[in-house]
């Protein structure tokens, strides 16, 4: 019986992360402060440890993974690379489809790859408590898990509407020992002000970030952690692609094309950057691998946004970064399920896209759920709505192979399972979800909020 | 870095299940009909395919696993055997603790091991539809998954109170294409009668079984499937222990004691019977392995029940079987969370216990959740409440090793994850759960419902 899973021994967990900054044609542009000058590290040092800030700005190609981090990775890594043979059969495609299953982590997604590293560096810096925000709950769960592993207290500001609608994500964080507050909360000035203006404020990710940052900035023993967008987050996630490359060697195969969902960009970066390293060095045995970021049509920052300086958060508190953005006050419609709602894309991903070194595609929502259900029917696993975006793109590619007869090798990042997203599947089955495409004028309008830079 | 996971290649998925009936000191007692005579196979043939009935009565030691079943097993099997090194460290025990992680199946528990086999045999017999019941939803999910894999329609009668309280288990079944009805339903005479008597009937497992069996018995293209108790279910689950033995060889270790949760008995049978095979043959290198069934103190069929003939279902429709039972109308208190609520224990498990070839222990509810949280804090994974019973017993054993200084090797069956049981964790954290121990008189009273046999 042929093996469909390519499993590395734990001794093969990579020893270094890959830093794509070393291989960019031009150096990454620095974040800028409100004065238009490069943001000073000391501004960030109030909320991030030095080791993280160094990684954020490093141009070293290989950065060692501390042994205590690898020891935690060992609880679920290496994650499996799996041949989706039943999906291929269902599609009748000559393509070979593989997925990297990041849903096997205890928190159910790829997010702990960076949460664990961030918890470690903070613990080493003498920090006792981490604050963070969470919307749907995936990042908050991951940080709660990671904090527990390194003995840090974790406080999660959870957008109030999610806090009320997704009580099981909250329970999960509490089981790992985290404190979870509905945001806006009474814990911070930002929260109290918001509640004073509107006691029924349902919260937003921007507000939750502001609460978490306010608390971290005010306390010496407390730092803040972010789950996407920034360079160090992309760096930590490269363990995904690095493992996948080793596993493709075991499988005696190699992808022609790689798909990963793209919201803030960390799961795409994690999967694609290690393959980009080969592309930059002339290709794998001379062959370039196509790297495709898959974003929701209802939040199309790469495919329809502008490459410009913008704030990282919705409220305009952070330094500004050069990235593809729809404008920081862009708000995806309520019909949109799940994650990938970020207004921009990671500066590193944006730069690669701007320089035409990677591709991007936007997929409509209903087609992503249709793909997720096809995957569940053939491969068993019920995927997270975010992952369904990559599955959709992989299926479309496999169907093109069926037409052309090309036996391409397709890889996608199964970023997580959907066990805490069954409410979205319910809404899909009951017809409550819709596709949504922005009129050009609406995007132009939201881009008017971009800050003016020199 | 030491490996904590012992992963078999997929080519090592066992080719045969182990049938413990071949190694019992005396043959298993047959189920009896209402007349006190052995139940006739033709009575059962209306709802089960021949291949399943043959397995139910077989005394062959090794029964081949059909290749199409192994090919579905391959979607998640072999499941990992994992050394719980961080749990050992937390306890400060010299014991080595291992767990077999059955939570990696797409449905999140060990239940698909038999659901897939049952779906296959029914499909081979020309059956087009399976009916079954589900309480908490684990079995219904597994049957929905398995039906989808073999192109069978699946109808699940889900106890109404669960249908309403656990909508995400229902969504999961629907995602795999199953029809799910709140029981009592309008689909069957049993359901209509129950609703006529009480339109607000909240349902019970007994009622849901009756609905599923009624539909299966009435339709030639429809069969019924049961997820525990029966011999063929125990048989299919032995893949767990068979894999574990191969993995212990890789680990160059061997368990001194094995713990598994025990409700109906399938997860205990699946893990323990293959080790019993060695015990029956004189031991592994002459050493006997202790095999311990762990049941809830609030439903203590092995430790406080009677070894007697009783009905398999709460309503008294099935043939009667010799087993440890609390009486088929025994009802665990509402404070009890999760599964393991069955009034009896599998006849095979019961016979082994009666003959003192295995052990049993009952654990109180709060201590099981405490153990589950310790496991989540150390190993990351949030376990199902059923699994927490085995974890509790394993931790208690490891703490005894700490006192005695013995470096025992402990194995337990992590039967599933708790992603759909966070409501129970919530109730635990908020202090809504309680321990409950029956007064002797209450058990004596419930035992009065036992049928009179020759």
UniProtKB/TrEMBL annotation, chains A, B:
Pathway: Amino-acid biosynthesis; L-tryptophan biosynthesis; L-tryptophan from chorismate: step 5/5. It catalyses: (1S,2R)-1-C-(indol-3-yl)glycerol 3-phosphate + L-serine = D-glyceraldehyde 3-phosphate + L-tryptophan + H2O. Its EC number is 4.2.1.20. The modification N6-(pyridoxal phosphate)lysine is found at residue 111. The keyword Amino-acid biosynthesis applies. Coiled coil: none annotated. Its cofactor is pyridoxal 5'-phosphate. InterPro entries: Trp_synth_b-like, Trp_synth_b_CS, Trp_synth_beta/beta-like, TrpB-like_PALP, TrpB-like_PALP_sf. Residues 75-416 form the Tryptophan synthase beta chain-like PALP domain. Keywords: Amino-acid biosynthesis, Aromatic amino acid biosynthesis, Lyase, Pyridoxal phosphate, Tryptophan biosynthesis. Belongs to the TrpB family. PANTHER family: TRYPTOPHAN SYNTHASE, TRYPTOPHAN SYNTHASE-RELATED. Tetramer of two alpha and two beta chains. This is Tryptophan synthase beta chain. It comes from Dentiradicibacter hellwigii. The gene is trpB.
């Amino acid at each position: 019986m042929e093996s469909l899973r390519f499993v590395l021994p734990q001794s093969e967990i990579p020893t270094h992360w890959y830093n794509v900054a070393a291989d960019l044609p031009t150096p990454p542009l620095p974040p800028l402060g409100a004065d238009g000058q490069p943001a000073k590290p000391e501004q960030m040092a109030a909320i991030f440890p030095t080791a993280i800030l160094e990684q954020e700005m490093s141009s070293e190609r290989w950065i060692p993974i501390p042994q205590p981090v690898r020891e935690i990775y060992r609880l679920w890594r290496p994650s499996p690379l799996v041949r989706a043979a039943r999906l291929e059969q269902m599609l009748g495609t000559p393509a070979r489809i593989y997925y990297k299953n990041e849903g096997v982590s205890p928190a159910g997604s790829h997010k702990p790859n960076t949460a664990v590293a961030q918890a470690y560096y903070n613990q080493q810096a003498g920090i006792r408590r981490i604050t963070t925000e969470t919307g749907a709950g995936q990042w908050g769960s991951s940080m709660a898990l990671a904090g527990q592993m390194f003995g840090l207290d974790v406080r999660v500001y959870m957008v109030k509407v999610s806090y009320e609608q997704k009580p099981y994500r909250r329970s999960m964080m509490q089981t790992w020992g985290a404190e979870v507050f509905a945001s806006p909360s009474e814990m911070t000035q930002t929260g109290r002000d918001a509640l004073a203006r509107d006691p029924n404020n349902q919260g937003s990710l921007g507000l939750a970030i502001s609460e978490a940052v306010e608390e971290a900035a005010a306390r010496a023993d407390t730092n803040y952690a972010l789950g996407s967008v920034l360079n160090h987050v992309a760096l930590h996630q490269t363990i995904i692609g690095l493992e996948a490359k080793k596993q493709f060697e075991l499988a005696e195969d190699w992808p022609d094309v790689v798909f990963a969902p793209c919201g803030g960009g960390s799961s795409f970066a994690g999967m694609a950057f290690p393959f980009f390293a080969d592309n930059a060095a002339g290709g794998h045995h001379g062959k370039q691998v196509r790297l495709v970021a898959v974003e929701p049509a209802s939040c199309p920052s790469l495919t329809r946004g502008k490459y410009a300086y913008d704030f990282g958060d919705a409220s305009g508190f952070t330094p500004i970064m050069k990235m593809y953005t729809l404008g920081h006050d862009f708000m995806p419609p309520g019909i949109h399920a799940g994650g990938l709602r970020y207004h921009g894309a990671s500066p590193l991903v944006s730069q690669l896209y701007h320089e035409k070194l990677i591709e991007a595609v936007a997929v409509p929502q209903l087609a992503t759920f249709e793909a997720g259900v096809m995957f569940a029917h053939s491969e068993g696993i019920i995927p997270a709505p975010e992952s369904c975006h990559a599955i959709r793109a992989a299926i479309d590619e496999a169907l093109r192979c069926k037409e052309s007869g090309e036996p391409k090798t397709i890889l996608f990042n199964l970023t997580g399972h959907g066990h805490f997203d069954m409410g979205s599947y319910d809404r899909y089955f009951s017809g409550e979800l819709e596709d949504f495409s922005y009129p050009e004028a609406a995007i132009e309008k939201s881009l008017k909020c971009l800050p003016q830079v020199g």
